[in-house]
Amino acid sequence: MINATAPITIGGVRGTAGVFQPNQVQHTSTFVGWPRGNGETRSGLTVMGGALYSSSYVVDGQVQIDPHYPHNNLRVGGGWGNFRWIEESVHRQSGPADSDRTFLYGQQTDGTLHRWIAEGNGWRKTGGVGGLSTVKPMALISRTPTAETFLANTRAGTLITVTWPTGYLSVPKAATVRGTPWQGFEQLIATKCGANGTLLLGIDRETQSGYLYVVGHTNGSSTVIKSLGKVPLTFSDPQYFRWAPTDDTLNG
Hints:
mainly beta, 6-stranded mixed β-sheet
């Protein structure tokens, strides 16, 4: 747990043994947790052995697997061995003109970005776009009834937003936030900060380092970004992802 203080402090490490085998998971989406008894139910999407799975488990009050509940890895489908990352976005209805929805995003190794929407027990593709081969990681920072926005960096060091309208077969648009020097990060993880901002963690896998930033509501090159500095941890694990509450509001 990383605290956005000055200087940055670490609030403790919580681990749950036995959820997956070592190096079993190739990619993981955000995991959502909600209370169950003295513990919590946790669920998200994973890629294992080139296949997509819906994964869930229950922890007790000591944050260890509760054996009274099933630990599920339900196979969704194959063909996921050539993806860079995946993300699941769960939007809750915010008004009478809105509705619940769940999107699945995935970027292939050739840069093509895909999106699916959950329908019943399956997924229906709602669009895709190429031309993103220079984009490295992407982190979801905003979710509204009409669009969802990612923050991403490129090999050239540019920090950009990619905004994708929710309409069927709609096309995402990119905007530059900073010209340089953001090329060092292989993964970005973002969460809500304040009413309309984002707390951003950039992970440099070559140096096993993490850097924390407070990002204001994105508005192209006018976006305010404050660096909080280097996180006093070694980032050597094979996978990193975000924990999200049931009510996961993102307004970045």
